[in-house]
Amino acid sequence: MVAQRLVHLIDKIDLSKITRVLDIGSWHLGQSVEFANVFPYAKIEAFEPVPDSYQLCLNRKSELHEQMRNRISVHNIALGVDSKDIPFYMVDATKSSVPNIGASSMFKFMDGLNGTPFGQELIQEEIKVKSDTLDKWSKKHNVSAVDIMWVDVQGAELMVFKGGKQLLKNTKVIMTEVGLKPYYEGHTLKSAIDEYLISLGFIELEEAFELNGFDYEANTIYINSKLK
Predict the structure, then answer these.
(1) In terms of Cα–Cα distance, which of 120, 117, 150 is closest to 39?
(2) I need a labelling partner for 63 at 20 to 30 A (CA). Which of 54, 117, 145, 215 fits?
(3) pTM of whole model > 0.85?
């Protein structure tokens, strides 16, 4: 998946200079591993709030060879607009028609849409997770700039971006899911994401826009026009 999306950046940025990638909403560490393979000297920061998924990330990291393992860090937090414990709605794999834990979110499914867009029945369980803002996290970890930010947070994309206003000024590329029609309560949609990122100097690569399997959400790419 990562390599297919990176094709859109070949003539837009110097991919040989990628040194820092954020994988926000990692689930199983899959995209972090892909980035680490494509960029053999880059530092990858993965974020996963769901305890079972966080453990899955740690397990997968432990299986990697040492050089790659040392370049990937996994953080058991949700990124948003607050630094506190928050309710989080984890998909209960034992009660759902399929174990799609990747549909876990800060938000509840809207009535009648608990997986309907997927053709599945997904049952959420409310848990508590730690949250932080991207700006506070970056200050704590001395991260001043990001080359690529990969975001898959099930409707909470705008919250991630609003909590990272300062870091986004030094972020070159955002590769993210965007909502087209809401299926979570509070689901932030592409129009609001466009408005916010444009205000910070990002432009969308229209050729990179693609539906994500159905017409409720899509994948797209934004580039910081202020960074060369």
Answers:
(1) 150
(2) 145
(3) yes
